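Before drawing any conclusions, I needed to go through one protein's amino acid sequence and its backbone structure tokens, quoted below without any editing.
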Amino acid sequence: MKAERFTWMRHQLLSPWFMAGVLLLIFLSAAPLLFAPYTIISITNVLMYIVMTVSWAFFSGPTQYLSLATAAFFGIGIYVSALAGEVLLFPLVITLGALLSFLIAVLVGLSTLRLRGMYFTIFTFGLSELIRHFVLWWEVNITGTVGRWVVAMDHTTVYYAMLTIGTVTLAVTQTVRISKYGLALRSIGDSEEAADHTGINVNTVKLFSFAISAVFTGAAGAAMATRWTYIDPSIAFNPLYSFMPVLMAIFGGITRIHGQIIGAVILTLLADLLLTTFPYYYMLLYGLILVVVILFVPGGLTGLQTDLKRLWQGGSGK
């Protein structure tokens, strides 16, 4: 058994995907020395959406529970940065944002993960709106202000923070995906009742994966807040932060990590391009592109790649 596991680990470490990932990580680590600040800021935005997309798919992909709570945990991280940024070091602020998001996800998950289908989706979206309005009420009625200043960090520091968060997110996601825990998550998505009857503690698995996905999102929010200097509830809990990771995962392919990454990279860069080229029409064009992809390529870009490969093999007689 140990020999088989060693062989499997050796195969994973020597796989083309792993080697390509290591080379890409080395390249990204040196990026601030190679590119202009604007390019580093753009890459930071891409890393942010990669973290949010992969984090969303970590739970919703295998379980098929459509969560729209990403904005809630991202906003929590942002407000942690605003409140604690003046008294804590930057790494501690990120850690606190991740920890608080985890705790809130556990509390929410204890009562909501028994819901299914559209009821769970509506509740998670309502959670983001509830937190947004509660923070707004608190600021208006208790503190007497709307919005807060955030301790700003230079773009290079934020970049390396997001690169670290992204690397940890991908490493944890891939480790879980190929483990027995990942198999349990996929079995829940296939048939929750069957998974329960096979001895899987369904509620615990769902709760833990939901909370873990919130950790990465909260950490990303705490790091990115330092780039915006000023935040308010409408900025921190923007509903787009709930919908964009879903669309990016669908665009690239929900079931595969590299598909999620591809979707996040392409749509983030596409949004920037359309915003600068067509500032008054970019949302319309962006929406049309997404509608076309969802209608005609429901499996995402990775699904399209698989279909083309099968068609090619079928046409060549293989």
Remarks:
- The first strand starts at residue 148 and ends at 149.
- The two ends are 35 Å apart (CA to CA).
- Residues 37-251 form one domain.
- The chain has a mean pLDDT of 85.
